[in-house]
Design goal:
Chain A is mainly α. Chain A contains 13 helices and 2 strands, in the order H-E-E-H-H-H-H-H-H-H-H-H-H-H-H. Chain A is globular. Chain B has helices spanning about 1-10, 35-50, 70-75, 90-95, 105-110, 150-155, 160-165, 170-185, 200-205, 230-240, 310-320, 325-330, 345-350, 355-370, 380-390, 400-415, and strands spanning about 25-30, 55-60, 85-90, 130, 130-135, 135-150, 190, 260-265, 280-285, 295-305, 370. In chain B, helix 15 (about 380-390) packs antiparallel against helix 16. Classes of the chains: A mainly alpha, B alpha/beta. The interface of A and B includes residues 122, 219, 246 and 254 of A.
Chain lengths: ~280, ~425
């Protein structure tokens, strides 16, 4: 009983904030629901049939996957590079670490607003580029750049946390293993590839999963910077859900989109989890 | 996020009338301005003092930001409906015709000294249905053109008042000066009241009326975004964005109050942000191919039918908007009452404006002004139109083909009306 008491807060949290709301969302997805006027009508699977043929939803899903993939690659690569750099005994390391970690604790809205001025067509970044004779793109108004720009802003917001996680993982790699490899004649790149990196894979798995799911519900930068445009080039699925529910008051269909997001996230999680034995070493 | 929000919205509250004893009224409003709240609280406190057995308190809750309507609808959907709500003209039709708002006519007609005849007829078009009033446009504010006279002069261009005197105050002449300012001074020539690339109706809705254009038919069932008048308007606007450079392009940021814009389309209340760091003027809207069309943007108040005390809230709204309190509100919001549209009253609203500016740009424009267009399904139309228009905001964007596509995209929504 004492054991159950200890896990009760977590179980209640998962039930109350996760499973029960999701049960409601499933129920709503079977209804046509405009709460503003009080309509709540059973439509069965109609919303799901609509979802299957809704090009906007599938285009948003593709955009979300592109966003998540770019975010994950940039974030993990940059965090790893920064962690390796900070793991060296170099002067100014603490300042450097603070510099990259501070965006993590800054309000996302404030962070994005500052960036909105920097990436304006006549903003700070293009001003600097102009000083060296380059013409920068219209970062948020060109379809080919807008999503990448949002990704970069999001990467710099969150990379500090992943950098710290990687740094902790790096410092947990037993020094004697690396020393033994060096004595056996391994070069630094080989030590990293064959000793350090494999021992960091549990942390990499964690970072990949957290970053992927973070990308699935990105909202603030899209709302502030692009409102899903230009066209629908930055309309990720979570933003489409928001607009469907809270702007169009079509809560039933928005719930259906919510179910789709859950299925996609679950599939990605299952994929990452099921393949972990092939690439994650030293799993506890 | 989504699941939590949806569940929150599902927890509906009970409808019903007031129980015995005084009630607490709550109004949500777009503005968080302290001075606005002071006037609202002053009127609320006076009503409570006069009706202590009916109302114990009246609170005014700001929900600021671009997602105001979303926040309001979420409160209503979640069973936490406010008693009264501030609603803009663009959403008026949607709120009125979907039955969200309570009929105010009985309360207005039975309110002593309300002077219904004093109300400006045209101001209530979008707030009425079947000859009943469902919202009161307490702010009936004409759009005008703020001019940075220093920038215009620095570019070697004539004062716009000279153009007015010569009866040459047209959108074309404004843009010609604006283009010159952009070219000579490296600043913005002309900016609409919002970003045309994000909020197309807010930005351009007060302009295309001077071309005789409208995005849809009067009954809202037929798309007219690709009408010759609208195509001509968008061709003209596109030309001034991408060829003359009079209008800042997509993604460019300028600020009129900081002295970076020569001409700004805005309402009276924008004068509050201006100081004497540069010389400015406030002029009526210029004429377009269809002549000069005065346009107002409106902020209205409605009683939420699903609130707990609609009858009491309606009675308070009748008090809030009676002739005496309209004078108080006129400090900030031009009222839809002809008796209060005086230079003396409105001078208090915008002390930095001259009598001439108030007379010409506010009062003269208010009386015959048309209200910026809205639609009963505005929330479903805003995004597809924005997405469609994004194709136009490139140097080689073609208005006719883009607007044809917009009409094709929104036709199902309009036709289902």
């Amino acid at each position: 009983m004492i054991g159950y008491a200890f896990i009760a807060p977590a179980v209640l949290g998962v039930l109350g904030l996760g499973l029960v709301p999701f049960g409601f969302v499933l129920w709503y997805s079977l209804h046509d629901w405009n709460p503003l006027v009080g309509d709540f009508t059973w439509v069965g699977g109609e919303n799901f049939l609509r979802l299957l043929t809704d090009e906007t939803v599938w285009a948003s899903l593709v955009t979300t996957i592109q966003f998540a993939a770019m975010l994950m690659v940039f974030n993990v690569a940059l965090a790893m590079a920064l962690a390796l750099l900070l793991n060296q005994r170099l002067p100014g390391t603490t300042t450097f670490r603070t510099f990259f970690f501070s965006p993590v604790i800054v309000s996302t809205v404030a962070w994005v607003l500052v960036w909105s001025y920097l990436v304006a067509a006549n903003g700070g970044i293009n001003g600097v580029l102009a000083m060296i004779g380059l013409e920068g793109p219209n970062w948020l108004r060109e379809s080919s750049w807008a999503l990448v720009t949002v990704v970069v802003i999001q990467v710099f917001k969150g990379v500090g946390m992943n950098m710290i996680l990687f740094l902790a993982a790096l410092q947990n790699v037993p020094a004697e293993l690396k020393e033994a490899a060096r004595i056996d004649g391994a070069r630094p790149t080989r030590v990293f590839r064959s000793i350090t990196l494999p021992l960091m894979t549990p942390t990499i798995l964690l970072v990949v999963m957290v970053t992927t799911f973070g990308a699935m519900d990105v909202f603030v930068p899209i709302q502030i910077l692009t409102q899903g445009g230009p066209g629908r080039s930055t309309t990720v699925i979570s933003y489409l859900l928001y607009r469907t529910a809270f702007e169009q008051q079509d809560f039933g269909y928005a719930s259906t989109i919510g179910v789709l997001i859950f299925v996609v996230a679950l599939t990605l999680a299952a994929l990452q989890w099921s393949t972990r034995k092939r690439w994650v070493h030293d799993e506890v | 996020m989504a699941a939590g929000s949806l569940v929150l919205a599902a927890c509906s509250g009970s409808e019903g009338d007031s129980s015995a004893g005084p009630v607490d009224l709550r109004m949500v409003m777009w503005s968080a301005n302290d001075a606005h709240h002071e006037v609202f609280n002053q009127i609320g406190a006076a009503y409570v003092e006069e009706n202590p057995d009916v109302v114990s308190s009246i609170s005014f809750e700001p929900l600021t930001g671009s997602s105001y309507v979303n926040a309001l609808t979420t409160q209503i959907a979640g069973g936490d409906a406010p008693d009264l709500a501030w609603i803009s003209e663009a959403n008026a039709a949607q709120f009125v015709q979907s039955g969200v708002l309570h009929n105010l006519s009985p309360a207005f007609e039975s309110s002593e000294g309300y002077a219904v005849d004093d109300l400006l007829d045209g101001a209530f078009d979008v707030w009425s249905q079947d000859e009943n009033i469902y919202g009161y446009p307490f702010s009936n504010s004409p759009f005008g053109i703020f001019v940075n006279r220093d920038l215009v002069s620095a570019a070697g261009e004539p004062d716009p008042r000279e153009l007015m005197a010569d009866e040459e105050w047209t959108w074309d002449s404004l843009m010609a000066v604006a283009a010159q300012v952009a070219q000579e001074e490296g600043q913005a020539g002309f900016e609409p009241s919002a970003s045309p690339y994000a909020g197309w109706n807010d930005a351009l809705g007060a302009m295309w009326l001077s071309w005789g254009a409208s995005p849809w038919s009067a009954d809202g069932t037929e798309c007219t975004m690709n009408s010759p008048e609208m195509v001509e308007f968008f061709d003209w606007f596109h030309h001034h964005v991408f060829e003359t450079g009079a209008v800042p392009g997509p993604g460019e940021e300028f600020d009129f109050a900081s002295g970076q814009v020569a001409f700004k389309l805005a309402q009276l209340s924008s004068s509050g942000a201006l100081d004497d760091s540069f010389e400015w003027d406030f002029l009526p809207l210029p004429a377009g191919p269809a002549g000069s069309v005065p346009v107002v943007g409106q902020g209205g108040v409605g009683v939420v039918a699903r609130g707990e005390n609609p009858e009491i809230a309606a009675d308070f709204l009748a008090y809030f908007t009676n002739p005496q309190n309209s004078e108080l509100l006129a400090q900030f919001f031009p009222p839809p009452r002809s008796s209060v549209l005086t230079v003396e009253t409105l001078s208090a609203a915008a002390p930095s404006l001259t009598e001439q500016q108030i007379e010409e740009t506010v009062i003269a424009q208010s009386v015959d002004a048309v209200t910026k267009v809205g639609h009963v399904r505005m929330s479903e139309l805003a995004d597809p139109v924005r997405v469609g228009l994004d194709s136009l905001w490139t140097a080689d964007g073609d208005a006719q083909s883009v607007l044809d596509q917009v009409c094709e995209d929104i036709a199902p929504v309009l036709e289902s009306e």
